[in-house]
Amino acid sequence: MPALILSLLMLGVLLILSSRRRLIKLGIPAGRLISLDTSRFIHVTEPLYDSNLGLTGRPDYLVQRGRSRIPVEVKSGRAPQRPHRSHVLQLAAYCRLVETTTGERPAYGILKYADSAYKLQYTHALQKDLLQILETIRKAQDSSPGRSHNSPSRCRACGYLSSCDQSLA
Length: 169
Prior knowledge:
alpha+beta; 20% strand
C-alpha cells in the first residue's frame, strides 16, 4: 500500500512538472490560468468592457499572478523581428480592459507567436498611444468619407444619391 501511495504521489509531481514545462514553452507565465478564449470550450465568459472608452475585447488567455492579471494574446504565425504595431496596440487594449475591470493595472502583457513570445511592458506611453489611436478611430467613424470622384454621371447612378451631401448631380 505505501508503494502505491508513493507511486501516485510521484506521478502527480511528474504531471505538474510536465504541465509547467508546457506553459513555459507557450510563453505563459507562472500563475493560475483564469480565463480562456477558445472555440473548443463550450462555456465562454463575457468579454471585458470599458464603458468610458466603449471598448470591448477578450484576450486569448488571462493569467493571474498574485493580485495581477496578465493578458496573453496568441498569434498563429511566426514571430516578426519585433511585434507588429497592431498586435502591440491590441495587447495594450487588453491591458487597459484588465485595468478597468479589475482595478489593477497589469505591468505587462504577453504576445505569443508560434515560435516565440514577447513580454511587452504596459507603460503610460503605450497607454497614451492606445488612447490616441482610439480617438482617431472615433473621429473617422463620426465623419462621412469624402467623394472619390468629380463625375456628375457617377453621382446620378449612385444608390446613395438621395442622402448624399456631396452629390454633383
